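ok trying again, last paste got cut off:
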Amino acid sequence: MKPKTILIGLAIICGFYLLARATPNLLGLFFDPEYFIPEGSTVFTFRPTVMNDGYYYYFEDDLKLSKQAAEACQGFLKDSVATWCLKK
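nice, full thing came through this time. structure:
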């Protein structure tokens, strides 16, 4: 297989990946006046973790807890930020 063909194939795959990541956010911004993307995120990186009636409780890329820290956190539930052992 020619290197040019491989590069074109990889570019197409990357394009579809970025489009798949951005489409839900673009649709949310277009159709929902309450939808927003927090500062520091982009349409490609933002993924809401919990959403209820258009209000976001927390955002995957705003609050981070390593899997190792989560395992050490007693009562940790990934969908309940109140159970996260975050340093204050």
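cool. Strands lie at 48-52, 55-59. The chain has two domains: 1-46, 57-88.
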